[in-house]
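Postdoc handover notes: sequence design on the structure in folder B. Input tokens:
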């Protein structure tokens, strides 16, 4: 009996995954049938076939309603929201960025455009560097990502390629002690966070006095509570994650400074 339940569950899974295509086929059939009826009636009697026209309108209306139903709740794309407003602080924002992960991609976005002077990872990720540090000392270091000034790297940067080869051609990893970072002056730290259906990147100003949140990029992707509908509805969190990436890019390009200076979201 248990195998029957597995079979039924598998059948329901396939049906739910195929549901958008089944509905699309039904609505296309309605449109085709209605068009054929209208064309045939008009050709014979020079009159509009009311049932055929109703099929066409019903197919269009049902398709639009179903499309919005399958899309699910609308996501809120990420926007840059200032948490403090201080013109002097905006003019003195540090050009050293520390991210909690993904520093290589951030370095490729910021360093060639001169949006930042240094980009670091909050933890060591390079295997060679990890091997050189005693296990109990990992938390005492950060990892700086630098781009080499070589013809091959410059060619990769000019091409705009976004593959693993660009890291091999361009990236240098080096160890930086957190104590040295603290002594070297303030820096910006980006921290990713999730609160319910919200995805957030916090911009923290780190000084001797501690970490102070100054702005954040935040977007929302309502989660589908119904597991059956989740099979057919699009995962909007991917769109929000992409908008977060673009929001950080806007912040680096000057939006962060404007937001802190004026209090205007961007």
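Designed sequence:
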């Amino acid at each position: 009996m248990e195998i029957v339940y597995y079979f039924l569950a598998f059948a329901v899974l396939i049906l739910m995954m195929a549901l958008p295509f089944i509905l699309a086929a039904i609505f296309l059939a309605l449109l085709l049938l209605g068009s054929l009826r209208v064309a045939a009636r008009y050709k014979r009697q020079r009159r509009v076939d009311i049932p055929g026209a109703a099929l066409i309108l019903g197919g269009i209306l049902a398709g639009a309603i179903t499309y919005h139903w399958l899309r699910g709740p609308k996501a809120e794309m990420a926007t840059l929201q200032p948490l403090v407003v201080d013109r002097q602080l905006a003019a003195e924002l540090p050009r050293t960025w520390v991210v909690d992960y993904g520093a290589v991609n951030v370095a490729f976005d910021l360093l060639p455009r001169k949006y930042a002077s240094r980009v670091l990872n909050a933890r060591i990720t390079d295997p060679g560097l990890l091997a050189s540090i005693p296990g109990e000392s990992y938390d005492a270091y950060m990892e700086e990502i630098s781009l080499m000034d070589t013809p091959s790297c410059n060619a990769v940067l000019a091409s705009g390629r976004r593959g693993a080869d660009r890291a091999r051609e361009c990236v240098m990893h080096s160890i930086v002690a957190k104590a040295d970072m603290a002594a070297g002056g303030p820096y910006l730290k980006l921290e990713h966070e999730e609160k319910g259906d919200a995805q957030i990147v916090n911009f923290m100003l780190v000084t001797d006095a501690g970490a102070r949140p100054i702005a954040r990029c935040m977007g929302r992707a309502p989660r589908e509570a119904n597991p059956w509908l989740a099979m057919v509805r699009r995962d909007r969190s991917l769109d929000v994650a992409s908008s977060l990436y673009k929001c950080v890019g806007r912040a680096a390009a000057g939006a962060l400074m404007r937001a802190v200076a004026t209090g205007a979201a961007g």
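Context for whoever picks this up: DSSP finds ten helices and eight strands in the chain. Don't rerun without checking with the PI first.
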